Amino acid sequence: MGKEVERKFLVSGTAWRDLVEADIRILQFYLAAAPGRTVRIRISDGASAKLTLKFGATARERDEFEYSIPLAEAMEMLDFALGRVIEKTRHHVRHRGYLYEVDVFGGPLAGLVVAELETPEDVPDEMLPEWLGREVTGEQKFYNASLALGGIPEIAA
Prior knowledge:
The chain has 2 helices and 9 strands; from the N terminus they run βββββαββββα. By secondary structure, it is mainly beta. It is globular. It starts with a strand and ends in an 8-residue tail after the last helix.
């Protein structure tokens, strides 16, 4: 078991694009979702798949269990997806020693760009990159399970 400690931000600039170290095409879908718990499948670059279980009601810290699963089985489970399948490209961007995961959404969520910072310590606001917009940590409508199962949030960085 691992603890996932993360902050989420809307992205308001494009300067991050010059800092991209890697990118991953992701298909992500949910098999179960309830308050405080989710079960999801993530397919990365059409080559590998993971099953992830998350537990916890607090926005910044949750228990996370993640397991590699056969790609063929993940593809079969697409038939059981709840809501929409999320399409996004995840870009790895470093700033001041911290790794940010910048997700650029496609499909019905096109136009949404969210950055996640997973770190156990609090990063002071003055250490955050200027291309980050409004912090949306704790705003459920910007979490992937809500994006898959709910409406499309109004984007206001």
